[in-house]
Amino acid sequence: MQKSDLTRLDPFVAQEYVLEELCYAHYKNDGSELDKRIEKVWKAMRGTKFYHRESTAFSFVAGPQQAKTFSFTDACRMFAEAVGLDFVKNPDDATIVELNESGKIKNSFVFVCYEAAGEMSASTTGGLISKTNVNGKDMMTKLPFMKFAAIEQAAAGMLLLDDLSNALPGVRNALFPLLQEKRVGALNFKGKYVASTRNRGSLDGTHTSQSSSAEVSRSSQFEIHTTPETWLEHIIPLYKGTPTEMVIESFMLNHGHEHFYRPPNKLGDPSWPGCRTWTSCLSQTHTEMLMAEELMLSGRSVDSIVRNVSDRSGGAVGIDTGSVFTAHVRTWLKGALPCALNMMKDGELKGDLKRLFNSYVVDKANTPEGADFAMSYSYALANEAANQVIKELDSGKSILKNENDIKVILNKFVNGVYNVGMHEDKISLAMGKFKDIVVESSQAKHKLGRVNEEGMTVVNDDFLMLMTEVVGTNQIARSEHPDLPGTKLYDVTFTEVFSNSAKLESDVERVIARRSSSEFSKIKESLKDLSAETPSMNAISQGMVQEKPAPIEQIAEEVATSFVEDSKDNTVDEGTLEKVMEKTEVENFKLESEDDGVVPDKKKEVDLIDESEFDMLDKMLG
Question: Which of 88, 127, 160, 509 is deepest in the core (most CB within 10 A)?
Answer without folding.
Answer: 160
